[in-house]
Write a structure and sequence with these properties.
Length: 445
């Protein structure tokens, strides 16, 4: 998408978009029809899967898909790097050694490079998209264009232009009745579903405030090697570059932000915040911050306070707390209490499921039964844009409005995907990368 330009579809406001898609979901598109799955798979009842993005999350997602009750086979894989693909393939084979017939990836169907995803998608009925999220919009677009069901990891983009593309593709997926599941797995976790049900039933009254956290220690860094081009170095250290990752507020903290939106039943209209690089300051940290604090405001005045950080040897907390007029929810404890501390509801921890597995179980069951059931792409785009406006707020020190960001067309992607192409951000002579400075970095006049 050209920078600064959006189609007429994207010029509608956030509220118009939600209204329109709600009508579609409840009307003419609601009746399930047969997808292409199983029509061209070559074997009755077999659901063929392609894995696009062969890192740790991709490997895990492939194993989870292959561990469902349905007759699922992995038939194609694609990654930018051969070593990552080979490691993933070996890990999948090892994990599935009790059912080796489920791994049917011929050498000719292992595709390496930036364009291999197109060939891998063509081999399958269902596509697993688990590359760094900067690639998600173009991979999702290709999968839907080829008529495939999709499981894609969060986040679904790293910039507003990517969000616009995902929203547009989501409409095409609905028109084709293709199931799309996004890896915001709390939506598939029994405790969160039960808590949400009780919010809907009024147990905590009207929501008055939300607090969400993803605070943890340091993460991995991969050493630069002399043979790496700058593009390869950034690809292998994708977490530290915004065009690939979106910063950890987008890549990780999206889970908690999404819970706030889910329980509110809406998205924030604006974000203000602060953040910086207090601990993680060297060139190996690329351009991202190591801490963010964001105040999200909804259209009814409710505020969600959001914090995330990566600080070694500091207290960790990954959780959500939702406060209402009658009580509050502690999501990690799966507990609801009134304002005097009396327990109103406690989820039975014996009933906990494995949400990473459940999202695949439910997706493949729907596909096998020829049901159109999942439309997660819009939810994934809304959660991702919520995190993106949080990043934009902490980077700039400005208030970032949802509608203005969505329509902005801001695009972080390179002009060309190739190992000899320059990435969008380059190091200086000392190897340091420029990073945002609140009050100096600006998105809107």
């Amino acid at each position: 998408m050209e920078k600064g330009k959006l189609s007429a579809f994207h010029d509608q406001s956030r509220r118009d978009f939600v209204k329109k898609t709600s009508i579609l979901a409840g009307g003419a598109l609601a009746a399930p029809i047969l997808s292409q799955a199983n029509f061209f798979s070559g074997s009755a009842g077999v659901i063929k899967v392609a894995l696009i993005g062969c890192g740790g999350r991709g490997t895990g997602a492939a194993v989870q898909a292959l561990s469902t009750k349905q007759n699922v086979q992995l038939v194609a894989m694609a990654d930018a790097f051969r070593d990552r693909l080979d490691d993933s393939y070996n890990g999948i084979v090892e994990a599935m050694k009790k059912t080796p017939e489920r791994v049917k990836v011929a050498d000719a169907d292992k595709f390496v490079g930036f364009d291999g995803y197109k060939q891998a998608i063509a081999k399958a009925d269902v596509v697993i998209l688990t590359t760094p999220p900067g690639f998600r919009p173009i991979h999702f677009e290709e999968a839907i264009a080829q008529g495939k069901h999709v499981f894609m990891e969060k986040p679904v983009a790293t910039d507003p232009a990517g969000i616009a593309k995902v929203l547009e593709t989501a409409e095409k997926a609905k028109a084709k009745k293709l199931n799309v599941v996004v890896g915001l797995q709390r939506h598939y976790m029994t405790s969160y579903r039960e808590l949400h049900k009780r919010v809907q039933d009024g147990m905590i009254g009207d929501i008055t405030s939300i607090q969400v956290w993803w605070n943890q220690g340091a993460l991995w860094v991969r050493e630069r090697k002399p043979e790496y081009s700058e593009m390869e170095y950034q690809m292998r250290n994708w977490y530290y570059f915004n065009w690939l990752c979106g910063d950890h507020i987008v890549e990780q903290h999206i889970h908690n932000i999404d819970v706030g939106n889910w329980f509110m039943g809406k998205t924030p209209v604006s974000a203000v915040g602060m953040g910086g690089r207090a601990i993680r300051t060297g060139p190996e940290a690329g351009e991202i911050f190591d801490h963010h604090f964001v105040e999200y405001r909804y259209d009814n005045g409710v505020v969600m306070n959001s914090q995330c950080r990566h600080w070694k040897d500091s207290v960790s907390k990954v959780d959500e707390e939702i406060v209402g007029t009658k009580g509050r929810i502690f999501c990690d404890r799966a507990q609801i209490v009134d304002h005097k501390g009396k327990t109103l509801y406690q989820f039975d921890r014996k009933q906990h499921n494995r949400p990473y597995q459940a999202e695949h179980d439910e997706l493949f069951e729907a596909i096998a039964n020829n049901k159109y059931k999942f439309q997660d792409a819009q939810m994934g785009a809304e959660a991702t844009l919520s995190a993106i406006i949080g990043r934009m707020a902490t980077y700039s020190g400005q208030q970032i409005d949802w509608d203005k960001a969505l329509k902005s067309g801001i695009n972080l992607q390179p002009s060309r995907y190739a190992f000899d192409a320059p990435p969008p951000v380059l190091p200086d002579a000392q190897g340091n990368y420029a990073f945002a400075k609140p009050g100096v970095t600006r998105y809107f006049s």
